[in-house]
Amino acid sequence: MSLSGRIFAANYDRFMSRTERAGLAAQRAALLRSASGEVIEIGGGTGASLPGYGPAVASLTITEPEAPMVRRLERRARAQAPAARVLRAPAEDLPFDDDQFDVAVSALVLCTVADQPRALRELHRVLRPGGRLLFIEHVRSDEPGLGRRQDRLNWLNRIVAHGCNCNRPTLDTIGHSGFTVTDVERSALLGAPSFVRPLVIGTATATGPRHPGAATAQAAPAGGGRRGARPSR
Asked: Which end of the chain offers a freer environment for a tag, N or C, measured as fewer CB atoms within 10 Å?
């Protein structure tokens, strides 16, 4: 467990507070209103999405790879969504069987995962055919000048925001990972520096065949999970 990870987790809510107040909280809540059935959220962080899940959600599973974040997520889940299941696991290696969930949620996560295509293949794998991915992600701008500025400053953003990449073509990668983007809104991450503001909010449906490189899950044993995942509750 790195010192930087502990510091980032301890200060994450404060770090994001301006952006949340400027519109991110409302944008996330609007997106999550359509979540229903068996839901998985990757990279749950400190649990900012928890208030957005409504009664149509039959079960909620939240994964988070960073141990310091998991502890904060557990505390918030106990208070706001006591039935939620929290597990420590990376998005690239989800400890679940195929076709297990109806909806997947990614909120400012695909910018940080080590292997974005693999994470999306894993989401496609654990979703049932026709399942939906709800996403809100900041991305590389389509405006050439801003896009080049994001490329130049991405190194700084990775340091300040604990590995976050502000210049990924996330929307394209979603479309290349077996998903059909059915709804997308281009917006801005207000309250953030201008070079990380380009934002996409939308829904994609798991329609294509599974990528041949996608891992096949095994049933998670009681009290544990496959490939090193740690259940937290």
From this structure: N
Counting the structural domains of the chain, the total is 1
The residue among 60, 46, 52 whose CA lies nearest residue 15 is 46
Burial of 22 (0-12, 13-18, 19+ CB in 10 A): middle
Find the farthest-apart pair of alpha carbons in the chain and give their distance in angstroms, rounded: 52
Q: Which residues contact 76 (CB under 8 A, 6 or more apart)?
A: 46, 47, 50
Residue 126 lies in a domain: yes
Give me the amino acid identity at 91: A
pTM: 0.88
- Read off the pLDDT of residues 3-20 as tens digits, 9 standing for 90 and up: 777 887 888 778 788 999
Which token pair is 183?
């709804």
CATH number at residue 67: 3.40.50.150
Q: Which amino acid is at 39?
A: V
* Model confidence pLDDT, tens digit, residues 76-91: 999 999 999 999 999 9
202 pLDDT exceeds 50? yes
Residue whose structure tokens are 């909620």: 60
How confident is the model at residue 212, as a pLDDT?
A: 47
Q: What is the DSSP string of 2-60?
A: -HHHHHHHHHHHHHHHHHIIIIIHHHHHHHHTT--EEEEEE--TT-TTGGG--TTEEEE
